[in-house]
Amino acid sequence: MKKLVLIICALAVVTACQQKETRYTQQSPEIDSVKQLISEYNAQDYSMEVMADTCKSYLNTKTDFLSKGDLMAYHKGNDANYSKRGFLDEDQDYEMVVTDNGETWVNCWLDWQGTVAVTGKVIDMPVHLTYRFVDGKIVRQYGYWDPSEIVLEMQAIEQMENAKSEEDSISEN
């Protein structure tokens, strides 16, 4: 009987001492990589070294992706619309999860702010980004936000420019 109790105690100690794989954390090298990517975006540095060359980015879509090169062009094209833009430092949340299938993902919830160059209007927007990692590199990115306020502002600018163009055309005649 004593041997049985000792065996059970030994099994309990061995089982309790075994390290289990971390499935959720708020501190990891992958989170640091995402923070680096966010920092580079804010600095308008699009080297994206933490992304694999084959990375696919899905921004507000589930079907149409941007390659790494297309993503750089996308960001550079959008930068022309703003005198200032970037993710804010406050109230940002990051988490890393390992799925049941063993995939490593980093999720982040961020606040983005941009000042429209033409009008000076400041737009605040919550953004959710999630990144899949393989061998320390980002291989997939999904980004979700509501672009309505930006779209409406850009449409108003376009209407303003069209009206000015029409005025110029009338005054020439």
UniProtKB/TrEMBL annotation:
Keyword Lipoprotein tagged: yes
UniProt keyword Lipoprotein, yes or no: yes
Source domain of life: Bacteria
InterPro entries for this protein: NTF2-like_dom_sf (IPR032710)
Gene3D superfamilies per UniProt: 3.10.450.50
PROSITE patterns per record: PROKAR_LIPOPROTEIN
This protein's UniProt keywords: Lipoprotein
Name of the protein: Lipoprotein
Species for this entry: Winogradskyella pelagia
